[in-house]
Amino acid sequence: MKTILSLAIIPACLSTPIFGHEGHEDQKTQLGIEAVTSYRSDYVYRGFELAENTLDFQIEGQIAINDYTLLNLGAWYAQESGSSGYDEAAFFTQLRYEKN
Fold this sequence. Notes:
By secondary structure, the chain is mainly beta. It has no helices and 5 strands. A hairpin with a 6-residue loop joins strand 4 (about 70-80) and strand 5.
């Protein structure tokens, strides 16, 4: 059984716009950042135990290009805290169009 214990979850959404004019009440947040770290007692993927006692960290940012288009960028890294030396990293991007 895989047990996940979240050590810290730090979502930080910046309310100061990085594009356009500041000080408008109707100005939307155009940048969001989230960082997450966790501990897994067993790291099991598709039925195979890859590691034990794993710490991982993920960071992701989202930029609103306009009212309908979003760009996500992120990365994560996991490392086993033992003698096996297992580690894993990934990077990801996503361009999303949301039609209302």
